[in-house]
Design brief:
Structural class: alpha/beta
Largest sheet: 5 strands, mixed, barrel
Number of domains: 3
CATH class of the largest domain: Alpha Beta
Distance between the termini: 45 Å
Number of strands: 19
Bound molecules: S-adenosylmethionine, iron/sulfur cluster
CATH architecture of the largest domain: Alpha-Beta Horseshoe
Radius of gyration: 23 Å
Helix content: 25-40%
Mean pLDDT: 93
Number of helices: 16
Length: about 425
């Protein structure tokens, strides 16, 4: 979502003459779009500002703006801690960035813009064309969260659940397809909680499925509780919907899930997967895991390993629990003596080894077979192409004749942990 937001920030700043640069020293304004999900992310922001400060020691000070969820959570405290920062802008206020920059230039006064103004944000954004021109493009359809998992800051930083207008989303999708997009990834903190008047996520998928030049549809991130019947049926009815679902489970232990306030248990999660597999046995699942949640016992951890083995996730994200101030789990942290940091690191390594093995085995299953790849780009400095399989595995391959945006059949000749490698022969060229 931050990638989507950063592109939109750039679209808005361009209305007052700003252009992107790849040369850091040429910049007269830095916008750091930040994430607050784990503590590490916050510290990275200050490190990055330290680097800018050092590089500009003998140059004119650039305008420094912190945007995103760290700005939302810490607001003017950030300016007090690091006076090099000129402005903080929360994720629901960034549509105002052009006016705020002009205000700053006029008054030379530090700015804290961290109010929640999500309806206005999307109305304003809708007036500025989305200039993203990637083969695989993002659209935010939903923001915020009402679920309040006990470990998570999102409900506090992004605010309550909000769904964008159906028409606005479809218009944006058509703009992106006209810009060259062949794949659209619908985004939301709880993307499958999308709920606008009579429209649900399944309605959006159905509408996108009918856009002629669009080839693939994906959505992320989903909450297990919102895997409704109509959404599951989309996997049967919409041919362009790709057979990979990212469905975070966090833990395989019912008592930890309860303590996390996840609102689902392992049996329910397994039943969702079963329904999906009944529609298409080739649907694959990826997930998110948290290890070392307060009071997680050996048995709880073993339950997580057990569910990983049962489902065989093909690609997942896993993290050591990071206590976030203001969340209910933060208060549990001191009460938990079972999980020391080094214990948690060992657990994470064990869990990641198992996940990696599933991923490697899955990649191996492509060997000497043909697979359909959507070409995203030609690799710089190499006569090779980059694309992804239906299940998002990156593929690097040789070809005698192909172009970005095409769907081609690639023969896989080798693989590693993350990638597949192979070649594509254009039959038309061969015949000629
Ligand atoms: N809404 C999605 C869901 O509930 O399934 C997840 C979105 S959350 C922004 C992304 C991931 O960050 C979560 O699935 C979780 O694994 C991880 N995460 C969130 N808070 C965390 C914390 N305090 N410590 C460690 N990981 C965390
Ligand atoms: Fe965070 Fe997802 Fe839980 Fe919402 S549902 S609180 S975004 S982990």
């Amino acid at each position: 979502m931050n990638e989507y937001d950063s592109n939109r920030i750039s679209d808005i700043a361009s209305t007052i003459g700003f252009k992107k640069t790849n040369v850091s020293k040429d910049a007269d304004c830095f916008v750091l779009n930040t994430c607050h999900i784990r503590q590490k992310a916050t510290e990275k922001v200050y490190d990055e500002i330290g680097r800018v400060k050092k590089n500009f020691r003998n140059l004119k000070k650039p305008l420094v703006i912190v945007a995103g969820c760290v700005a939302q959570a810490e607001s003017d405290e950030m300016i007090k801690r690091e006076p090099y920062i000129d402005m903080v802008i929360g994720p629901q206020s960034y549509h105002k960035i052009a006016d705020l920059i002009l205000d700053y230039k006029r008054n030379n006064k530090k700015i804290d813009a961290t109010e929640f103004d999500v309806v206005k944000k999307f109305d304003e954004l809708n007036k500025i064309p989305n200039t993203q021109n990637k083969i695989s493009s993002y659209i935010t359809i939903q923001e915020g969260c009402d679920k309040f998992c006990h470990f998570c800051v999102v409900p506090y930083t992004r605010g309550p659940e909000y769904s964008r207008s159906f028409t606005q989303i479809i218009e944006e999708a058509n703009t992106l397809v006209n810009n060259g997009a062949k794949e659209i990834i619908l985004l939301g903190q709880n993307v499958n909680a999308y709920n606008y008047k009579k429209y649900r996520l399944s309605s959006l998928i159905k509408e996108l499925d009918s856009i002629k030049n669009l080839k693939r549809i994906r959505f992320t991130t989903s909450h297990p509780k919102d895997m409704t019947k109509d959404l599951i049926e989309s996997y049967r009815n919409c041919k362009k919907l790709m057979p990979l679902l990212h469905l975070p489970i966090q833990s395989g232990s019912n008592s930890i899930l309860k303590s996390m306030n996840r609102k689902h248990d392992r049996e329910y999660y397994l039943s969702v997967i079963k329904k999906l597999k009944n529609i298409n046995k080739n649907i694959k699942i990826s997930s998110d895991f948290i290890v070392g949640y307060p009071n997680e016992t050996k048995k709880d951890f073993a339950d997580t390993i057990d569910i990983i083995k049962k489902i065989g996730f093909i690609n997942s994200y896993s993290f050591i629990f990071s206590p976030r101030p203001g969340t209910p789990a933060y208060d549990l942290t001191n009460q938990s003596e079972i999980n020391t940091f080094s214990e948690n690191k060992k657990k994470l390594k064990k869990l990641q080894n198992i996940l990696d093995n599933f991923q490697l085995e899955y990649n191996k299953s492509f060997l000497n077979k043909y697979t359909e790849v959507l070409i995203e780009n030609k690799l710089k400095k190499q006569e090779k192409y980059f694309g992804r399989t239906e299940n998002m595995i990156p593929v690097i391959f040789d070809s005698n004749n192909c172009q970005s945006g095409e769907l081609v059949s690639v023969k896989i000749t080798s693989f590693n942990q993350r990638n597949l490698f192979g070649f594509h022969i254009d039959n038309k060229v061969k015949a000629a």
